[in-house]
Amino acid sequence: xxxxxxxxxxxxxxxxxxxxxxxxxxxxxxxxxxxxxxxxxxxxxxxxxxxxxxxxxxxxxxxxxxxxxxxxxxxxxxxxxxxxxxxxxxxxxxxxxxxxxxxxxxxxxxxxxxxxxxxxxxxxxxxxxxxxxxxxxxxxxxxxxxxxxxxxxxxxxxxxxxxxxxxxxxxxxxxxxxxxxxxxxxxxxxxxxxxxxxxxxxxxxxxxxxxxxxxxxxxxxxxxxxxxxxxxxxxxxxxxxxxxxxxxxxxxxxxx
Length: 256
Hints:
The protein is of the alpha+beta class and 256 residues long.
């Protein structure tokens, strides 16, 4: 979906290994969100040399042809073109993964206007209702309960006022059309309700490498790699996949 919204025509995506319960995107940068989704299961996303948007899951290095078959061969005379580097700064023996479960709640107020909205005769006015929380759906506002429409003398103009709604993740574009020919419609006490998606307090999982080159973090130095601030990491299964894989990957210094 994000690739389509970004106008990318050619893609090559491995199947994802984790289920992300809730995803949404409004005004965020598509590339940033795609990277976060890929990182939520230790995958990689990139454009290859042909311009194909490619997602590799964590198993790709063991089964994809681009990893299991030689891609380039260096002759002995070209060995000088290679430089190996070892950097201890990229080694850790303690990995902490933060995840935040989401849940869809019951009916709640998501938006309420701060002041009345005036719509001139024959005018259609559109405003953006920014919701307090993301919601996959909204309840169509009910006259008398969720809003009132009057003219300046207090006469009800509901019969000549129509509404349109375009729902996004955490905002609603609301259009108000006043079909009356001479009276101004004034919208009062307008609110939107729905079933919001809320996050639990963030939880943490710790994964320690007792056989690390840096030593045992339980008895000695603990150098910690912290994975946090990724709203797509929502389950314990994701945290376990990330933690166990990164623990084994970063516990030893590897040549680059």
